[in-house]
Design brief:
Layout (H helix, E strand, L loop, with lengths): L3 H11 L2 E6 L12 H12 L4 E6 L3 H12 L4 E5 L13 H12 L5 E5 L5 H13 L4 H19 L5 H15 L8 H13 L2
Parallel strand pairs: 1-2, 1-3, 3-4
Helix pairs in contact: 3-4, 7-8
Length: 199
């Protein structure tokens, strides 16, 4: 396993330009007084040797017009989870999810960091997972599951010990089925045991 210091070094070396998108931050050169934005900007310039643009998010329509310029040659996006949440008649977090969708499909963005004041990070993960799961049709999901089940069945024939089977399945599901990672630990064990016993 790579040490934390080495991971930071690898990430730092891979990122030379970043964009921070927030509806509360002021641009670094604006007349608005915003110490958080200015401190973030300075820390990237001095410590990370990374160019940081700060974009004051207004609404999705404006972002769509600006996105080609904003995302051009940026490897990192720092995204506020609570973008435009007070907009009447709009589902909560939809603006953030749409911006995130743009980042995922962008050829330059390598990493997205979401920051929030919310304490339930698993709920945020589930909302992101739910939003992006719409891109998979039932047929695609079923086909993927069928391939994995055939693969598992072939390997489990060689496993005599149920604990070996559980460990193998848990590792496989973590790597192949992203939704499995969101299950509570007790539900993971129950699911695995049912798979092994054929229930």
């Amino acid at each position: 396993m790579i040490e934390i210091g080495k991971r930071k070094e690898i990430i730092s070396n891979a990122i030379s330009a970043a964009i921070c998108i927030d509806d509360k931050y002021a641009s670094p050169y604006s007349n608005e007084e915003d110490n958080d934005a200015k401190n973030l900007y300075q820390s990237f310039r001095e410590q990370g040797k990374c160019a940081l643009d700060i974009y004051k998010y207004i609404d999705l329509h404006t972002f769509e017009k600006d996105k080609d310029y904003l995302l051009n040659h940026k490897e990192l996006m720092i995204l506020d989870w609570e973008l435009n949440n007070e907009a009447p008649g709009r589902p909560k977090f939809i603006d953030t999810l749409k911006v995130l969708e743009n980042a995922v499909s962008d050829k330059n963005i390598r990493c997205v960091t979401i920051y929030t004041q919310a304490t339930d990070l698993q709920l945020i993960t589930l909302q992101i997972y739910s939003y992006f799961s719409r891109f998979y049709s039932d047929t695609k999901i079923k086909d993927k599951i069928d391939v994995i089940v055939e693969y598992i069945a072939g390997i489990l024939d060689d496993k005599t010990d149920i604990e070996d089977g559980l460990i193998f399945l848990k590792d496989l599901l973590k790597n192949k089925c992203s939704g499995f990672n969101f299950l509570p630990e007790a539900d993971k064990k129950k699911t695995l045991k049912e798979l092994i016993r054929g229930k």
